[in-house]
Structure formats: C-alpha cells, structure tokens
Amino acid sequence: MSHEYRAVTWNRQKRIYDAVVGFGVLALVGLFVGVTAATHPNFTAETALIRGLGLTALVLLHVVLCIGPLCRLSPAFLPLLYNRRHLGVTMCLVAIAHAGFGIFQFHALGDVNPLVSLLSANTAFGSAAGFPFELLGLAALLILLTMAATSHDFWLSVLTPPVWKSLHMMVYLAYALLIGHVALGAMQSDTGTALPIALGVGAVVVIGLHLAAAFQERARDRGPRPEADWVDAGPVDGIPEKRARVAVVAGERVAVFHYDGKLSCVSNVCRHQNGPLGEGKIVDGCITCPWHGYQYRPDSGTSPPPFDDKVATYNLAVVDGRVKIDPRPNPPGTRVAPVPLPQRTPAQSDLAPFYIGYAPASERRLARHTRRATVTLASLAAGTMGILALAQPPFAPATFEYGQPRPVVGRLSAFPYPTLVVTEGTQVSRYLLAAAGKHGAGALAQPLDGSTVRVLGSLIRRGNRSMLEVAGIQPSEPDFPDTAPAQTDLGRFTLTGEIVDAKCWLGVMNPGEGKTHLGCAVRCLSGGLPPLLVVRDSTGDERHLVLTDISGGPMPRSILPRVGRPVSVSGTVIREGDLLFLRAEPSAVTLLAR
Fold it and tell me: Could you tell me the pTM of the whole model?
C-alpha cells in the first residue's frame, strides 16, 4: 500500500535491497570457499561449498532474527525491516541450496532414492549423541519453506493477520532446530572451539536483543492507572505535529495523533503485521505504519479505498491541557470526531527520521545510519565466515583424479572385495576397485576373477593405499605372473575405531568419515564398497583394516547401523601382502558409549 493508495510492487528501493542481499550472499559463500582453498590445500570443493552455503544461511537467519528487536530499540533500523521478508526468502533459498548439495553429495548415486536414504541411513533415535542431525535440519527447512511460500501479502490476507503472525513466529522453532542440527552434526565432526563459540555468541546476541527490546516495551506498558474510567495520556504539548504518543489503555496500546490542530486516537496495532502505528507519521492525511507503509485515516481507523483494513478508535477529551482517553474501544472503522485544540505552537517533528519503503529516503541521518548498520552487519558476517573457514580442521592428504582415467594392468581378484594385484619391478601392490557412484565393482570383476586384465580407472589415493574408480575392465594378455599374496595370521585383537567406506575415506570425499559423512558411508557400503575399520593410536597415526566376516567373505549389511560411529571390533587380523584384513562376526562389532 502506498500514499497514492495503490499496491506497491517492485521499485528502486526493493531492487537496491535485493541487489545488496544477492551480492552479499555470493560474497559470503565465495569468501568461505576462497579462504578454505587458500588455507587447506587438500580441501574438497563440494565439501567447502556445502559448508559455505550452510553457514551463510545460518548467518542470514541471525540477521533476520536481530532486525526486529533492533527496530524496537531504535527506529533508525526500520529501513532494514521494510524488506525483511526478502532477506528471509533469500535465506531460505540458500538453505535449500545447502540441503540440495548435501543430499546429492551424501545420498545420491546409491542403491536407494536419496530422500529414502536421508530418512533411513541413521536410525539412532534413542541416542543423544547419535541422533540423526539431518532430520532436525529437514524439519527446520520445511518450516522455512512454509514461511517463504506464505511471505506474500496475499497469504496474509487469506490466513488473517493473527494466523499469519503465529505461523511466522515458528521461525524461532526453526532456529532452535538448526542449533541442534549444527550441534549434533558439524560440531561432532569438528572438535575445535571456533564453531561452538560462534554459535554461542550468535545465540547470546539474538536472545540478548530480544530481552532488551522486551524490557523496553515492558517499561512503556507501565502507564498510569485510569481515573474515573478515563486514562490520563499526558500533556497535549508533548505530542509532536503529525506524530503520536503511545499510551496503555485497559492493557492495550493506543496511539494519540496530533495533526492539523486536532487529536485522534486509534489502536496502536497495524492490521498488516501488528506494526506499531504510534511510531508512524501522518502522511497525506493518513496514519502511515513505519514497518511497511500501511495507512489508516486518523479519525475513523479505516484504510483509504480500495483497501478495507480497519483498526479500533477511541474517544478523547482534553482536560486542563492533558489528554484523557476512554478505555472502551469503538468497533474498528468507527468515526470519532477529532478533538480540536486551541491555537498553539506545535512541537515540530518533520525533521525526525521516518522511513517509508516505497518512497525515497529523504532523511540523511537515517540513510547514513542505515549504511553504517549495513556495513557493520556485513563486516561481522564476513569476519565470522572467514574465521570459521580458517578454523576448519585440516583435510586429509588424499587425492581423487576425477575425469583422468589411466590404464593399469594386473591380475584381478573379486573375493572378498575386488582388487587388482600389480607388479612394478620387484614391488607387488594392490589397488582396491570401485564402480562409479556409491557402488562396488563386484559385478564388473566377477566374470574376470583370476584373469589378467586391463583396468581403465581414476586414481584415488590416501597415504600408501590406492583405489581405482573403474571406467572399464578388459581381458589382457595372460602373461601376468601369478602373484597371489600369502596370508599371515597375526592373531586375535580387539580394536576400536570407526567403520568407513574405502572409496570416500581414501579421497573421493574429504573428510570421508565422522557423523556428517555417516549417510554417505551407509550408502557406499550398502552398494558393495569395501568397509574399512580406521584405528588411530595416541599419536594420531592411522591404521586401516578391511572388514570381512569370520570366513573371509564380505561383511553383511547388518553392520550398517554401526557405521560412522565409534565402535569396538573383536576378530582375527590377517595380512595379505600390503593389506590387513580383520575377520569378525557381525555381533563382535559393538557401538561404544558416547
């Protein structure tokens, strides 16, 4: 709604706002990815992008939640409030991008639908530490999607303002869910202090600003008690021209407006989004709400045609230079004759800052304050993103030569998991084999088991262990020596560590372990990729053992609920050339308490 009584669509103010927000989002994501690339040489671009999008959405949500109380503490922040819904929708789109990339990265290209995988990969609902953090993020995203979809005023009018407001208050539930999403996800994989400190500071700021605004509003509500059924609203001389004084009448706020030598009183609550009419201004003869510019006639509380919004009006009297208000409201839209005032010099208010989003900002002080606030918020957001990017734990020294297949000739073994035995001079080594996506190479290897083959595959390497993502296998000349490695029984051990899938852990995803990678590991192992038990000693040195069943065959799917979490495994360790195998019963794989 505008002062010309027509709907406001796109204008210069909105375009500038959205351009700044769009550039800011790109800058924050780019900053995080850029700092990660510069300081973490072994980073995976997909991981950096997923983290950058998630953190950007979380930063934007903090800004959205802070704008409201900041406006209650100082009306100079109102220009940030006018298009806050645009910022909220942008934040929702960034969150969707984060979720979309995450679902594709961790749950797509497997043996089940990605959404089914998302909902079923982790079923540790009875564990506080193991609870599936993805479901908290999904629940928050559904709330944000609902809010974004109903952000237009069409839905506000259809749902009615009270229902619409209640629906959009669920943003606080979404915020709490996202705090849990990060605490049970990223913070369990990243044991550093930067992320929890940033999350804690953000929560303190949001809660602190809301409490400060609430205390200020509470102080305003401590009005005088009614005398003889009328409420004293203070002296007439203290009400500026074209502005209002807010008073509390029968537990409700009302606004007494002074304009053109007369007084009128209406409810302080705008019908649009419960904005404070008393902080508005008379523009073109109408009370103009400072939040979104909705207008009402001061004598009747009705919106100018073609709009039909109405607010309650109140009867007034002036006794001995003081304003008296009848606490009984008139029905919304009831005209009450304004109370004329004796000739006097009115208090000036035209120079006081006031902002209407559909009109150019003429108040230079307000524009300067808005620019300073925007620069401050942007600087804090950029600093947070930069610090969190720097504070990420180091990525493992692993590589994946994606899109660069190389030919490798050797003897193929399909049992228990496909491997290629290669002789280079006197050195005998083995490549683990994997198919594209989250699938093992068993179906490709079994027809040629024991044969000399030529494998075309992309190299995956971490430390002294290598894998090939197979693009094709062809029989080769049968002159490759039989170099089947001998088996050595090293004895029975009980080892503690984490079960990972070999493909991601060796370098396709970095990091390829931890709770955030759990869903992907489940899909990879379910698809037939070799499971590894990664064991670390007190100095951080890693050992990895290929898990098999007690007879040396593939480990059954019953171990999937124990993937990606600390486990203890009891079994026999067998050395075959440069590979270590841990043969164990599935029941010997037990979760460790956390």
Answer: 0.87
CATH topology of domain 398-475: OB fold (Dihydrolipoamide Acetyltransferase, E2P) (2.40.50)
The whole-chain average pLDDT of the chain stands at: 89
DSSP string, 204-219: HHHHHHHHHHHHHHHH
Name the DSSP class of 593: P
Which H or E element spans position 455?
strand 452-462
Residue with tokens 């002074």: 258
Residue 189, CA distances (Å) to 41, 543, 555 in order: 19, 19, 26
Q: What's the CA gap between 109 and 194, in Å, rounded?
A: 33
Strand partners, 455: 408, 473
Question: 423-467: per-residue pLDDT in tens?
Answer: 877 778 899 999 999 999 999 999 999 999 999 999 999 988 999
Report the alpha-carbon distance of residue 77 to residue 548 in Å, rounded: 63
Q: Where are the domains of the chain?
A: 12-219+363-390, 241-340, 398-475, 487-591
Looking at the DSSP assignment, which residues form a beta bridge with residue 340? 262
What's 314-377 look like in SS3? ECEEEECCEEEECCCCECCCCCCCCEECCCCCCECCCCCCCCCCCCCCCCHHHHHHHHHHHHHH
The topology (CATH level 3) of 487-591 is OB fold (Dihydrolipoamide Acetyltransferase, E2P) (2.40.50)
How far apart CA 471 and CA 216 sit, in angstroms, is 67
Q: In whole angstroms, what is the distance from residue 267 CA to residue 253 CA?
A: 6
Same fold, 241-340 and 398-475: no
